[in-house]
Specification:
54% of the residues lie in helices and 3% in strands. By secondary structure, the protein is an all-alpha fold. A two-stranded antiparallel ribbon has the order 1-2.
């Protein structure tokens, strides 16, 4: 979710893909072969100024990392080819620059680090609460946790 939020936040700054830059002779292959999603589709217009970061590459990298982590097969490392091929595809089709894919990987890495730090902080916080609750319980003669709530009687 943090990756998606970061990617959406960056969307507030318009960044044109290479196919929209005049003078670079980049060919929009989707338009050339009649497969472009840019135009009115069901009354919606796709945002053409959303090239940074490449959500395609970020998603592919996330899927590959999960495949590597969850699979026990020795072939699981082949999953890392998926984001590499996705990056190649979006660059070759002039939908993204190389930096767009690198930014997506960096944003995903940041999201994963923040998520891990949050999990560690949550575990420490819960462990501290449990320790304090046990200390309070041990310090009361009747074993209750709170002075207002008596301990359950068997």
């Amino acid at each position: 979710m943090l990756f998606t939020a970061g990617a959406l936040l960056i969307q507030l700054v318009p960044v044109a893909p290479p196919r929209m830059l005049p003078g670079d002779n980049m060919i929009d292959t989707a338009v050339q072969y009649g497969q472009s999603v840019y135009g009115s589709v069901a009354g919606l217009n796709a945002d053409q100024l959303s090239a940074m970061p490449s959500v395609h590459v970020g998603w592919a990298l996330l899927v590959a990392l999960l495949a590597v982590q969850l699979s026990g097969s020795r072939w699981r490392w082949l999953a890392l080819g998926y984001p590499a091929l996705t990056l190649l595809a979006v660059v070759v089709t002039a939908n993204h620059f190389w930096l767009d894919g690198i930014a997506a990987a960096a944003l995903l890495a940041l999201a994963l680090v923040v998520q891990r730090a949050g999990r560690i902080a949550r575990r420490r916080l819960l462990a501290g609460w449990r320790v304090r609750a046990e200390q309070r319980r041990a310090s009361r003669p009747d074993g209750s946790v709170s002075p207002r709530v008596p301990a359950a009687r068997p």
